[in-house]
Amino acid sequence: MDLKKTTAPVNTVTYNKSKIEEPTGNIYEAITIIAKRASQINSEIKKELIEKLDEFATYNDSLEEVFENKEQIEVSKYYEKLPKPHALAVEEWLNDKIYFNRDSDSK
What we know:
This protein has helices at 17-21, 27-54, 70-81, 85-94. It contains four helices and no strands.
């Protein structure tokens, strides 16, 4: 997932309910699908952030020394400024980038 190319809003946005429910015909089903995708996105971002921060990890037994690493701070700030996972999921939903399958459709 390329987070730099997203156009998801960083702030709160009001969406048209009918556009959200249009693909499924049911707002609750649409929200459930979006929520599951948001959870997946959150896991991907968390994994990526942990991998990047592990590069800066120093392992010592002394708790007295705390090192400030400017690069680590910049990485953290970058991830703080990203749109939230639910905003990314809603954007994907509205742009028809989420595939979903109903169990009743396959029977």
